[in-house]
Amino acid sequence: MEKPKILVVDDEEDILNILKFFLEREGYEVDTTLNGEEAIKKIEKNYYNIVLTDLRMPGISGVVLLEKKRNLAPQQRWLL
């Protein structure tokens, strides 16, 4: 059985590492990125069961990322 895949987006590397550690320990496959621009590229190339994003980030914020996701991958679930 394939592991559920999660993309975690946060501009703080420590937060990414902590979330990745705990989510992988729970059996998820986890990708991470430090910004919204890179998140968009990953979403265009990969399917994620869940995208977990910070709201306030430089550049593309989590809010803008959520607005853009409607066109990129409407079937994906999003958490803030």
Strand content: 15-25%
Q: H/E order of the elements?
A: EHEHEHE
CATH class: Alpha Beta
The pLDDT mean sits at 85
- Low-pLDDT stretches are none
CATH architecture: 3-Layer(aba) Sandwich
How large, in whole angstroms, is the Cα Rg?
12 Å
Distance between the termini: 27 Å
The total count of helices amounts to 3
**Classification by helices and strands:** alpha/beta
Task: Note the main sheet.
Answer: 4 strands, parallel
CATH topology: Rossmann fold
CATH superfamily: Response regulator
Number of domain units: 1
Shape: flat
Helix content: 40-55%
Kindly report the spatial arrangement of strands forming the biggest sheet. 2-1-3-4
Total number of strands: 4
How does this model look, in words?
This protein has 80 residues and is of the alpha/beta class. It has a single domain (5-54, 74-79), classed as Rossmann fold (3-Layer(aba) Sandwich), CATH 3.40.50. The chain is 42% helix and 21% strand. It contains three helices and four strands. The chain has helices at residues 13-25, 36-45, 62-72, and strands at residues 5-9, 29-33, 50-53, 77-79. A four-stranded parallel beta sheet has the order 2-1-3-4, sandwiched between helices. α2 packs parallel to α3 (62-72). The mean pLDDT is 85.
